[in-house]
UniProtKB/TrEMBL annotation:
Protein name (Swiss-Prot/TrEMBL): Nucleotide sugar dehydrogenase
Molecular functions per Gene Ontology: NAD binding; oxidoreductase activity, acting on the CH-CH group of donors, NAD or NADP as acceptor; oxidoreductase activity, acting on the CH-OH group of donors, NAD or NADP as acceptor
KW NAD (keyword) present: yes
InterPro entries: 6-PGluconate_DH-like_C_sf, NAD(P)-bd_dom_sf, UDP-Glc/GDP-Man, UDP-Glc/GDP-Man_DH_C, UDP-Glc/GDP-Man_DH_C_sf, UDP-Glc/GDP-Man_DH_dimer, UDP-Glc/GDP-Man_DH_N, UDP_ManNAc/GlcNAc_DH
Organism whose genome encodes this protein: Listeria aquatica
UDP-glucose/GDP-mannose dehydrogenase C-terminal domain residues: 308-402
Keyword Oxidoreductase in annotation: yes
Record key words, sorted: NAD, Oxidoreductase
Coiled-coil positions: none
Family designation: Belongs to the UDP-glucose/GDP-mannose dehydrogenase family.
Pfam family, one: UDPG_MGDP_dh_N
One of the protein's GO biological processes: polysaccharide biosynthetic process
Amino acid sequence: MKITVVGLGYIGLPTALMFANHGQQVCGVDVNDSVINKLTSGQIHIEEPGLQEELDKALRSGKFHAGKEIEPADAFIISVPTPNHEDAYKSCNLDYVKSAVTSVLPALEKGNTIIIESTIAPRSMMDHICPMVEASGFTVGKDVFLVHCPERVLPGQVMHELIYNNRIIGGITEACTEAGKKVYKTFVQGELLETTASVAEMSKLMENTYRDVNIALANELVKVCDELDIDALEVIELANKHPRVNLHSPGPGVGGHCLAVDPYFIIEKAPEKTPLIQAARAINSQMPSFIVQKVEETVQDITNPKIAVLGLTYKGNIDDIRESPAVEIFDQLAFHTNYQVVAFDPHVQVDFASKDFQQTIDQANFVLILADHNEFKNLTVEDFDTVASEAIILDTKNIATQLAENPNYYNLGNISELNKKGAHAL
């Protein structure tokens, strides 16, 4: 089978390589010259465990090549970004998806399958993509087959989960669903779940909305317990001893191109019917400001305080800073002209992030742990010998609990203690 994958980002590239390394001939297409040049020279452009090895294998076999031109194929897989519009409900921007579909149409032949893996708003396939394909002269479900198969993998475990996770196969017609199953059967060992395109769209969105809402509940609990001087993390630990309770972990906010984006695609379609989803989005979106406020209150009496941010990604052990609350916290703090704000992240290549941990925390008055990288899980009290006297460490991910022997270590459980601490001891 010949497969053309359009969009070689965090999902498209692993998907393309997975097909190639399971015997399919794959052309990967991207509009970014840097991406194509790197892949052609044998280098990945994103951080994902095992991905470099998969690229090496695919290039050696000759089953994968990258370029900027769409090539004829049996199946076209579209995996491009779907950002938010800057409108009242942050609705789904289908421009990249539509552009990708338009680019495929000249190469489309009878019997071909088009699969949209990009996360899209409900009814996008029926109301937008299907009409585009049929306007080019094809009958969907008869001449060509149109499917929505949303990705559902966890960054850091993508290569494993592509194979073993269940996949939702949502066709415009039953024939489309069968065509989609034929494509993914080449390597997926999880169950191929048959449904309609619209159900597939909503299922994907609800997977992430469920998590967003439950994280919002945990984050709201943190704010309530901060007000009442109660340890929120202990509350969660004990509540989760109940056999039917599973409170999620709080944090500095949510990010990435899933939890921070997808719920809006539901909200836009039924704003009057989604007060809970909207409230959850607001709670999680406000968490960076809540963290910043805690820092501001603590350092208010210090002249030119140094604040060290550890971690810029939205989750641990990846290089993805899309919609990252850590970056938002950094930006809000950097807005203060009298603060010296520095950042360290061993996974991220950005100008404002240092690669030297000790240089970053040297004489820092406040240290914020904002990403659960493995590098931060093994930090010891001795690693912070160079911080300023009585410096505060706030672990918003609750990953460096071994630092608790430091009396100035805090997490989202005992964050109310910062209200008492103030800046006077610093």
